[in-house]
Predict the structure.
Amino acid sequence: MQRIWCLILIFSVLCLLTAKKSNAQDAPVYEQYVFDNTLLNPAFVGLVDIIELKAAHRQQWIGMGTRNTPSTTFLMFRSRLKDRDGGLGGFLYTDRNGVNSQTGLQLNGSFQFLMRTKRKTRTILSFGFGATIFMHTYDESSFDRDIYDPIVNYGKRNYLGYDANFGVLLTHGGLIAGISFNNMLQWTCPVYNVELERSPSVNMNVHVGKTFWLAAGVQLCPLFIYKTNMKNLNQIDLGVRLKFLSGNKIRTVYTKDENEFVIGLTYKQTLDVGNVSPLSVSPMVGFIMKGITVSYLCDIGLTSLQRYNYGTHQIALGFRLYRDKFTTLDKHNVASMVYDF
């Protein structure tokens, strides 16, 4: 166990050092990972032996109205493969932000290797891949025509885009440690002026978490995430969740409780070059009951903009099926830390 923690520490340090030496730029990182960790790393797909369908919506800056403020909507699906060496999943999404909007489809796949078995604890290495195709819309039709601007054509233009992501995840009982990369193809909307706009970049996420049993039916799950564009935009997310488990046991590849009630808190801080300051604090609440999942999060900004926007709100609704009826110890089980709902 000590060797595993040493490898994780060395791996994380190397990632941080690499982030300071590379040239790149930022791309959107979906904040809904608090509701579905496959948005953070495709290697999470298939780690839980369930079939799940989930819808999630994120509305930013409620105080400024819902018409022109950023919003993102997801419809997600994931399932573990029948032979239990990987999983398949994906999501449809719509992202709106001012004159820019995207509607797309991402498909994720993963495969896992059982590295070590010791009684009921398994060490599993998971690799995940994702491919995305989307329609990017640049809409200037609502611009004020009484103000002349030679670079505005007052029309709506659509562009077909594409992307790919990749992730690696190590699980050892209740421990998870991983790294993921998105925006790997660095697609640029043709309408942008490449001389004025920064070129797109690969984004990296390093994440480490652990499950601690405080008492029978009570879990504490901290999670650390480091996000970077590998140049000058960096951020850390510090999250913690308290889980209360109850109900009948579900006999899957691993045994879990039928119902869960969860409360959590996430703190975000920017580590941008020349700007290290708090960003937000996000309380959340969620529950799982009879396979139905409901969760809500409120993102409270810690900057001066918070006085005007009244926060960002996220909600997710889902349904999951547990496929196996019995625990089979010769199959490799999954991490006991499942940081989503």
Remarks:
- Confidence is low (pLDDT under 50) at residues 1-29, 326-330.
